[in-house]
Design a protein that fits this description.
Layout lengths: L9 E10 L2 E11 L4 E5 L6 H9 L6 E6 L2 E2 L10 E4 L11 H11 L4 H14 L15 H13 L5 E5 L7 H18 L2 E6 L2 H7 L2 E6 L2 E6 L1 H6 L4 H6 L4 E11 L2 E6 L2 E6 L6 E7 L4 E5 L6 E10 L4 E7 L2 E7 L11 E6 L4 E4 L14
Parallel strand pairs: 3-8, 3-9, 6-7, 7-8
Antiparallel strand pairs: 1-2, 1-4, 4-5, 9-10, 11-12, 11-14, 12-13, 14-20, 15-19, 16-17, 16-19, 17-18
Helix pairs in contact: 2-3, 2-4, 3-4, 4-5
Length: 367
């Protein structure tokens, strides 16, 4: 079966894809290193699905170069590229058994009957479905069907494995379990994988690196930690996890540290190369702690809404910065709507960001 030695890099060099006057992706560059799982993340119409289809050969680039394993595949058909795709819909043949579905690609490639059978059984074992080969897809759960789709892609031993929103048809609890299985399998086999999703939590959970796309271009690329802790601009800060986007003022900069005023409260934050003056600030909901207002330091506020969710309470709090969304894990001492509170901000989770850059109006909804 597939090993890390076959994993190949994927590289885009100045790639553009246009449909008439509509530009789906615009002059993008990136590299997926061998053995890594990289997620293309962004809102509907940002270009992520088009990028995946360009890797697969299901679309042809209008300009630029696409390399897989250092080989120029820009003009190669999908059948001539050593890639496999796991589709959102699973795309299993309902009249075939699970074993026949997994071995289908091997069969049409001319494999001997015994080799096809053995390969299918190996694929099922790899995804933990030994003994399910004689069942029909309709006899499996959604998560099991997804694993069959993964096994069918794996038995072809591709250089690159592509995932097109693979978990969107699963419920929340099953989605979490299957994404862990995909992540574990990818690491175990050392596969080069490109994964498309619009789900930020999913991307953070499975990826070595994330490419955030917006309006046909790359807004930021980095590790999950980098994107969450150091968003490049207000779009990324607002898209990767929840953020309260507010205005602040950099009062002074001393090397890599800045003294910042936010809603009447001064605090020290990484300057991120920004000069003194007005600045946008991203405040994560979990970066704020609520306290009784009497005698407490921090920004004063008033609780507008409180929603109990078991492990935490979600508050909407009116403040000098406007309404703030705050997640508080102090569930034993809740604040009722109407309560006066002090909002205490931790330095971690409060980030200075550049205003949006590279925004452009695009004609139509581009995938």
């Amino acid at each position: 079966m597939t090993t890390a030695s076959k994993a190949a890099s994927v590289e885009f060099i100045g790639v553009t894809k246009a449909y008439g006057q509509v530009v789906a992706i615009d002059d993008i560059d990136f590299v997926v290193e061998p053995g890594n799982l990289v997620t293309l993340l962004g809102p509907s119409g940002c270009g992520k699905t088009t990028t995946l289809r360009l890797i697969a050969g299901l679309e042809m680039a209008s300009s630029g170069t696409i390399l897989i394993g250092g080989k120029d595949v820009t003009r190669l058909a999908a059948t001539d590229r050593d890639v496999s795709m796991v589709f959102q819909s699973y795309a299993l043949f309902p009249h075939m058994t699970v074993r026949e579905n997994v071995g289908y690609g091997l069969k049409v490639s001319g494999g001997a009957k015994a080799d096809v059978h053995a390969g299918a059984e190996d694929g099922l074992a790899m995804v933990g479905l030994e003994g399910y080969g004689d069942r029909l897809p309709s006899e499996l759960s959604g998560g099991q069907q997804q694993r069959v789709a993964v096994a069918r892609a794996l038995v072809l031993e591709p250089q690159v494995l592509l995932f097109d929103e693979p978990l969107s048809n699963l419920d929340a609890k099953l989605r979490r379990r299957v994404r862990e299985e995909i992540h574990d399998l990818q690491r175990k086999l050392g596969l080069t994988s490109v994964y498309v999703t619009h789900d930020q939590e999913e991307a953070l959970a499975v990826s070595n690196r994330i490419i955030v796309m917006n309006n046909a271009v790359i807004a930021q690329e980095g590790t999950p930690h980098q994107l969450y802790e150091e968003p490049a601009d207000t779009f990324v800060a607002d898209f990767i996890g929840d953020s309260n986007m507010v205005s602040g003022e950099i009062l002074a900069v001393n090397g890599k540290e800045a003294r910042v005023a936010i809603g009447g409260v001064e605090m020290s934050l990484p300057s991120r190369g920004l000069p003194p003056g007005a600045v946008d600030v991203a405040i994560r909901p979990e970066a704020c702690r609520l306290s009784n207002s009497a005698g407490a330091e921090g920004m004063q506020g008033s609780v507008l809404k409180a929603v109990y969710l078991g492990t935490h309470i979600e508050y909407t709090v009116d403040s000098a910065l406007g309404e703030l969304f705050i997640i508080d894990h102090q569930v034993d001492t809740p604040f009722a709507p109407g309560s006066s509170v002090a909002i205490i901000m931790a330095s971690r989770g409060v980030t200075l960001v550049n205003p949006n850059s590279g925004e452009r109006d695009m004609a139509g909804e581009n995938q």
